[in-house]
């Protein structure tokens, strides 16, 4: 996801440095802020904010290792999976919300699906990164259809 010479459409390093700084400063608040904001798309106009999802995200985050969380930011932002994806021959369904503020679709899913020899990209207009939790009826139907195919 990091903007590099190879992937100029990625996000600037400052975005990920900001995540690391927020995590270091107040890990508990970081997990509340991410869930209450961009992860589930709760910042959009008319968003159906779920306190339960926000608290569950916080609970899961606080159960994990602070060091692992910090290192994970580097792993998900700086690891180039190009060769790995090109070597996958099984059918793969890539699901992505078109209003994903956490992981922009242009810097991730569109690239990943294009690298898969047998990949299918399914996008969801207006949905966020946490679409599996906010719209399980929609996502689960698409997963079942893919598995049955």
Automatic annotation (TrEMBL):
Fetch the SUPFAM superfamilies from UniProt.
alpha/beta-Hydrolases (SSF53474)
InterPro entries cross-referenced by the UniProt entry: AB_hydrolase, AB_hydrolase_fold, Hydrolase_4
- The source's domain of life comes to Bacteria
**Boundaries of each Serine aminopeptidase S33 domain copy?**
67-132
Tell me which stretches of the chain form a coiled coil: none
Protein name as it appears in the record: Serine aminopeptidase S33 domain-containing protein
- Source species of the chain: Aureimonas glaciei
């Amino acid at each position: 996801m990091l903007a590099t010479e190879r992937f100029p459409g990625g996000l600037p390093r400052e975005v990920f440095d900001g995540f690391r700084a927020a995590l270091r400063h107040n890990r508990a608040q970081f997990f509340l802020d991410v869930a209450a904001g961009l992860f589930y798309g709760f910042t959009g106009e008319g968003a159906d904010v779920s306190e339960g999802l926000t608290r569950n995200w916080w609970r899961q985050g606080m159960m994990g290792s602070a060091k692992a969380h910090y290192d994970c930011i580097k792993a998900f932002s700086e690891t180039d999976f190009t060769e790995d994806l090109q070597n996958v021959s099984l059918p793969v369904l890539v699901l992505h919300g078109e209003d994903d503020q956490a992981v922009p679709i242009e810097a991730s899913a569109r690239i990943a699906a294009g690298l898969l020899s047998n990949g299918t990209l399914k996008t969801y207009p207006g949905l966020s990164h946490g679409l599996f939790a906010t719209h399980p009826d929609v996502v689960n139907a698409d997963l079942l259809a893919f598995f049955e195919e």
